[in-house]
Model the fold of this input.
Amino acid sequence: MKKLLLFCVSCLLCVTILLAQTREIKGIVTDSKGIPLEGASVVSKGTGKGLKTNAKGEFTIHPKAGNEPVLLTISYVGFKTQLIEVKGNELLNIKLEIAEVSAGDEVVVIGYQTMKRKDIPGGIASIGAKDLKDVVVASAEEAITGKLAGVQVTTSEGAPGSQVQIRVRGGGSITQDNSPLYIIDGIESDEGISLIAPQDIESIDVLKDASATSIYGARAANGVVVVTTKSGKNSKGKMTLSYNGSFGLNKLSKELPVMDPYNFVLYQYERSKYSDSTSTQYTWDSVKYYKNNVPFFDWQKKMFGRNALQQTHNVSLSGGNAQTQYYLSVTDNTQDGIYLNSEYDRKLITFKLDNKPNDKVKLGFNVRYNTTTVEGAGTTDPNGDQSMSKLRGIIRYKPFIQSGQSADAFDPTLEAATGGNGLILINPVLTANQSYLHTVTDNFVLSGFLNYQLTSRISFRTTFGYDISDVQKNGFNDTLTGYAIRYGAKMPSASIERDKKVILNNSNVFTYTGKSTANPFTILLGQETYKNVYDVNVNQTSYMPIGIDPKTALANMNMSTPPDVYHPGFTATSLETPTNLVSFFTKINYNLNRKYQFTASYRADGASVFAKKWGYFSSAGLSWLLSKEKFMDNFNILSDIKVRASIGMVGNAKIASGLYEVNYTSSNPASSYALDGVLNPGLNSANLANRDLQWESTLSRNLGFDFGIFRNKFQVSVDLYANTTNKLLVNVPIPVSSGYTTQVQNVGSTLNKGIELQLAGTVLRTRDFTWSFTYNISANDNTIKSLGANQNFYYQSSNWAGASNLPDYIVQVGQRVGSMYGFVSDGFYSVNDFTFTKTTGSLTSDGKQLGTYTLRPGVATNTSITSSPVQPGSIKFKDLNGDGVVDARDRKILGNNQPKAFGGLTQTFKYKNWDASIFLNYRIGGSIVNDNKLEYASGYTPQANMLAEMENRWKVVNPVNGVTYQNYSPGNKTIVGVDPTTLAAFNQGASIWLPSIGSSSSAFTPSSYALEDGSFLRVNNITIGYALPVTASIMRKTGLTRFRIYATVNNVAILTSYSGFDPEVNTKRATPLTPGVDYSAYPRSRGYVCGINLNF
Amino acid sequence: MNNKYFKGLTILSFTFIILSGLYSCQKFLEPETPSLISNTTVYNNVFTAKMAVLGVYSDLSGDQGYGIRVSCYYPYDNDETMGPAKLGDNDRGDIAHYNATALNLQLYAPYVQMFEGIERANLCIYNIPKMTAFLSGNAEARRLYGESLTLRAQYYLELIRNWGDVPAQFLPSEVSNNLFISATNRDTIYNHLLNDLAIAESMVPWKSQISVVTGDKPDERITQGAIRALRARIALYRGGYDLRQNGSISRDPNYKAFYQIAWNECDTIIKSGEHTLNADYKALFKNYVCGHTLDPNNEIIFQVAMGGGGGATDSKLGTYDGPKWGGYLPSVTASTTLPVSPSYLTGSSSLLMLPTYFYLFDVNDVRRDVTIAPYNVMADYSKVGTKITALNDGKFRCDWVSNPGPSSSLYWGLNWPLIRYSDVLLMFAEADNEINNGPSTTAISAYEKVRLRGFGNNPAKMAAAGATPTDYSGFFQALVRERSLEFGGEGIRKYDLKRWGLLGTAIFQTQKNIASLLTNKYMSSTTYMAPPPAYTMAGASLPTSMYFNYPGSAGNPANQKSAVDDSTLWVNSFYSKSSSSLANTPTIALPLSNKSSWIGSGLTSTFGSYFGSGFKPNHSELFPIPQAVIDASGGALKQNNGY
Done:
C-alpha cells in the first residue's frame, strides 16, 4: 500500500515538474539476470519526485540543476529496495535482487503497543491490506474465512448479512460465548468486525495464545482479533482518491429434491391406508390423474430462484502532511437476498484524523458510522421455535398449483388439514408477503487517543472509545402468518423491539523504553475501564384490525382490538443490564542480543458480573532466533528459524449480570397470575444466586516454530497448543427440588489441544509471471475433562423441534464438546421380523392372501419412541442394551461437529497486467445433523410434501392398482397385510422406511439417520483482474494512477457428500453446545461479481 | 515553564487519577441493575411483596400447572373417567392408563413447576416475616405470609399424592446448605404442612373480613376458609392409605388423630357461615366457572385463576376436555347417519366419562347432566348426541363458556376449582364417621345437605333414591359414591380412592362392570361403594339406541335446533320404562341421523384396550420420578417402586 501510495504521489508530482529541466538522470532497472523490470518505482528522496520504468526498464529523472547529490529509491514488488546516491548525470544500470521477504518484518499492533512480528513470542495469524486488496468480499469476516490457521470462520447460513461465527482454536468455554475479543484501533468492540467495510481494513491480527492475549486479560480466553483500520499517510498535502465498485448477482446454488405431484398424491393416498383413522382428499382415480396431467411447481425456485443483485461502492480520500493525516471513506453496499422480499443495505462512513502538533504529542481521532437495513425475516431464527420456520413451509407445500389458481393463492383446506400437528401449511409466497421485518442497525463509534512523550524514555497514551449501537426491529405478522394463526386469533400483530448498547472504554498506559538499542527493553504499566449498558425495549401489539398495512400498524401501536378483556392487546417489556470491568496491567518485553525475546505480563481484572470480582492473569513467553546462533551458521536447509514457547492465563467473563445475588424480575407472563382474568404481574427469582461466581480461566500453552525453506522462498509456521479451561462457567443442572433446574457455576474443565500449520511462498517468479500461495491447516480437539463433583453428563437439546423432542446433544466427561446423541438407525423392520397368520378366506381385491403380522419374540419393539405400532417397513433403531425394547436407554453418542482438520488455500497469479486468484477452503470430518431431513422425510402431518428420497420407501399400497397391501387397525391393534413373500417381493427395492405418521415429537426422534459427514472442499472464490496500463499521458489527463477491472465468482463449487443445502451451517447457535444443526437454514447462493478499482 | 516541574506534575496527576480510580473501583464493579430487583426492594413494602406472592400463585396456572397437565392428565383413569384413547404414546395416554415410564414426556415439566412454586413460596416465607410491616402487625403483610405458607402446602400435596416421598426443602435454595437432598418421608412433610397451615389460619382473614382490592376475586386468592379446607384435606391424606417406599399400601395406625384435625377444621368452616352451598348445582359451573363470574355463595372456596390466553398462565379447560365445538351441520337426509366425531369440530374431547359412571347417577340426580355432556356442539349451539362410548365431561363445556365466549384459541380462561364447600361437608361427614365409628346426626346432615342439593333440593326425590345408611361401613360406602357423584371431572376421585386404599379395587371392578354393562345391558354392584340405582342393575334392560332432537329432525319441528344441555335433548329414556315417564323408544319416527348407539355389543373395544390397562397394584398408585430429575439429583433420589 505504502509503495503504491508513494508511486501515486510521485507520479502526480512529476507531471508538474516535467516542465523546466536542466539536469537529467537516466537509468535502466533489471533483475539480477539483466531482464528489464517494467513499472519499477523510482523516487528521488527528499524531493519526492518519482516515476515508473517503461517496458524496457528505463527511466529518466530531471532533478534540480547543480551537482547536489540525489538519493534515489528504486523499488519493485518482490525485490529488495535499493538506495542509490547520484551526483552527476550518469547512466545507471540498476540490478535489483529478489527480496526474501520475511513475514517477521511486518509490524503489528498488539497489547497497547506496536511490535514487529518476529519479536512476538506468541502465536499470531495476520492478514494485511495486500491480501485484502484484490479480493472481492462483502464483509470483513469473509475476508478472513479460511485464510488464518487456527481461526475457524463459520457463516451460519446463506442470507446476506447473516451471523458469522469466529472461533479461535475451537473456543474453550462450553456454555458461554466463545467469541473472541475484538479490538478495533485499540478499542474493545462488541459488534466484532462485521461493522467495518473490508475496504477500510489495514490489517487483521488474530492473537491465539496467552503470551499475546493475556495482556488483554479479561475476556481474552477465546483469542483476540486486532483490527487496524486504514489511516492517512504523509503525502505532503496531496490527496489520494480511490474508488472501488462492484456489481453482481447471486443465484441459488442447490435445491433439495422433493416429491413431484404424482408421488406426492400417491403418498397421500397411501398414508390414508396406513391406518383407518386418517382420511385424505385423494381417490385412486385422482392419483392416476396426477401421474401425467399435473405439472410440478418448484416452490424452492419460486422462493429462492430470483437473480439477487448486489452492488458495492466505496470511495476513500486520504492524505496529509507531516503534522496531520486524514482518511475518509464511504461505503454503500446493497444486496438482495435470494429469498423473496429480502434485502440488505449497508452504509458506512469512517473518518480518521491523526495529528502530531509537536514532537511530544500525537493525537488521533476516529468516527465511524454504520447503518444497516435488513428487510425480511429470513428463514430461521437461532432462538426461535420450529413452528416459525419458513423453509418447512416451502419444502412441504404441495408441489403443484390447482388449475386457475395463482402462485400466491390461499388454500384454507390445506391450512386446516395440516394444522393438527402444528405444521399449518400456508402458501409460501403468501407467507413471505405477509411477514414483514425491517431491521435497522445503527452503530456509531467515536474513538481517540493521545500519546504524550513525557521524557525521552517514558511515554503516556490514553485511549478513549464510545460506542453506541442501536438495533430497531419492526415486525409485522399479517393474518395468514404462522404467528397470527397460532397466537393472534388470525389478526395482524406488530412489534417494535429496540436494543441499545452503549460501551465506554478507556485505557491509560505508561511505557518505559530502555536505553540499550542492542538489548531493547520496554515496560508497560496501565489501567483500563470498560462499561457496557445494554437496554432492551419490546412493544408488542396483537389483534390489530384486519386489513391494516405494516407501516400504518407500526406507526399506530395502540390500534389493538382484542377479542375480549382476557386477551391483552399490548405487552411491553424492558430490560437494562450494565456490565463493568476495571483492569490494571503491566507487561515487560526484553530482547537479548536480538536473539532471545522475552515477554511477561500480569493483569488484574475486576468484573461486575462476579461475586468474587477480581481475577489475576499472568503469562510468559520466550522466543529464540535459532538461526542467529553461531552453531547454526552452517545450517542452510532452513532459514530464519525461530522457536516460540509461551504459557499464560486468560479469563472469561461473558455471562449475564446479577447471577450472584438473589434478584427478582417481573417476567411476564412466567410470574403473572390472572386475577379476574387479567394478568397481574408478579415477581420471581429467575436464577438461583451463586455467591461464589468467579472468573473462568484458561491456561494456555503454546509451542511454535517458524522457519523458511529454500532460502526463505517458503515460510512455514507450526504451532502446537494445549489449553485447559478451568472453573468453567457452566449452566449446570441442579436438583429440581431447589426450584430451579440449572445454575451458573464454576465447575469442570475442558482441554483444547491442536496443531496449526501455515505455509506461504512463491512457487514461481519470472519477469512477467508470479505464482504465490498461502496454505493453512488446523486441527483442534476439544474434550470435556470434568463437570464438577456432582455431574458426569447432562443432555442438551438444540431445541430445533421444541422442548418435547428428545435431546439431541450430550455434554459428557471424556467426550468432545458438541457430541450428538440419539438412536442408531438400523433401516427398517422386514417381514422376517414378524410371524404371519393367514386369515382364511380373506383376499385383497387383486387376489392376494391376507393375514395378520405379529412381531416375533426377541425382535425389539420401539413403539414407545415412535408412538406408532411396529409393522413391516417401520423405522428400526438398534436395541443397544439388548433388553428387547428400544427405549431412551438405547441412545449413544452418534457423532461430533468438530472437524478433523480445516483450512484454506489461496493461490495468486500475476501475469503482466493480469492477476488471478483462486481460493479454496475445506473441512475434513465433523458431522452435521441434518434436521431438515428428519422433518421433511416424515409423514406426521397429512398433505405435506416430503423429500424425494422417500419415493423409494417401503410401500403399503400397490402403486399399479391402488390396492392396499398392508395396514394397521388401531381398534383391534392388528397389522393386516398380504403374505410375506408377496409383501417382501413388492418392496424389494425399498431403501427407506415407511414415513412416520406418529406425533410430531416422535417423528423427529434424533437418530444416526440425520447425521451426515460435513467434510467439504469449496472453491470459494475465483477472481480474474486486469490492470490497465496507466500511461503518463492518461495520468496527466485524468489524474488516474490505477485502473483495474475484475470479475469474480463466489462459492463456485463445492465437493461434498452432504445432502442438504450446504455443509457449512450452524442454525442453533444459542449455546455453543449444539453446533452443526442444519434446520431451516437460508440456502447459500453463488455470486457473480464484476468490479473496478480506481485510484487518483 | 520548567520542563521537569511540568513532567513531575503530569506524572503526579496521572497517579492521582489512577488512585482515585482504584478508590471508586469497588463501586464501579457493583453497578445498579435496574431490571433486577433485590430482596430488599421486594420486601420493602406490601405492594411489591404482594407481587412476589402473585409469582407464587403463578405456578398453579398454565399448561404445566392446573391449566392442563395436573388437572387433566394426572387424575385419570379412575372409576368415573378414562383419559385419552392412546397407548404407547409416551405421553398423556400412557399416564392415564398407568403405563408411564420415567421418560414420559409429560411428567418432568409439571414436577419442575411445582418445585419452582415451592421455592418462590420459600423466598416469601423466609423474607416476609422480616418486613417492618409484618413485624408491626400489618394485616396485608400477615395475609401474604399466610398465603405463601398455604401455597407451599398445596404444591407439596400435589407432588406427594402423585409421586409419594419427595425431597422437601423449607428454606430458599439460596440459604440452604445442601441442595442434593434425598426424599423426605411424606408423613414428615404432611406434619410440617399441617403446622404451617395452623399458622397460616391465624394470619389470613375470612372471606368477609377482607376488603377486596379491585381485581382480586375472593375465590382466586386464598382466604381462611381455603386454608382450613386444605388443612382438612391434607389431614385426611395424612391419615389415609398410600403406597409406601417399602412397596406396600398402608396407613398410619394413629390415623384417627388426623381425622380429628379434619373434623375440627371442617366444623370451624361450617360454623363460620362464610361459605354455603349454592342451591343450583348447574349454575355453579355454567354461570360461575364457565361464565367467568363470582359465585355469590362462595361455595367455590378457592380456585386457580386462569387467563392471559397463553401456556404460562391460562388453562385449556373446555378445549382439551368437554364437548367438541364449532362447525355447522352438514345437510342430512333421513337415511344417513351423522359422523360421531365430525372432523369440522374442534376440541380434543380427551376425557371420556365411563358409561358405568353415567348410570351411577340416579335418574333424578341433577348432577349427571352437569358432570356428563353426551353431545357435541355446533357453531349455532345446536347439539348432536354422542355414542355412550364417547361421553364428554361436562363441567367445562364450550356451550356454557361466556363472558367472553369460546374463541378459536385453545385458552378460554376457565378457572380450576381447587376446593368447594360441598367437599368440606363431605370431609366432615367422613371424618365424623371415622372418629365415631359411625355417623353422628351432624355428619348425616352434612352428607344429606350435599345429596339434597344434588336432587335439586327435592327431599322426596332424594328419599326415593334410598335412605342414608347409619352404620359405619354403610355410611362410608355411601360417601365413596356421593363424593364421586359430587366431584366428577374435578380431578379428585383418583386421589380419594388412593387415600382409601381402593384405587386398584376400583379400577379392576370398573373394568368388569363396563364389560357387564355393555354386553348385558345392566350394571353390577361394586364391593367398595354404595350401589348404583336398582333399575340399572341385574334385570334392567338399558336402551341400545338413543334418539335426540337436532335441526335435521324430520317430524319433530318443536325440537328443531335443540339448545338444551340436559336430558331433554333426548327423545327416549336412558333407563327402563319403570323408572321414568319417558318411553324407552321414541313415540315418533326419527331419522337415523338422530340416533346414537347406546348400550350394546361392539362398543367394548375402546375401554377394553385402554381403561386402566397398565394398572399394577402396589406400583401404579405413584408415578415414576422423571428420569431427568433423578439424573440431576446427584444420586440422592431413588426411583419409585417397580419403575
Remarks:
- Chain B touches chain A through 96 residues (CB under 8 Å).
- The CA atoms of residues 57 and 151 of chain B lie 7 Å apart.
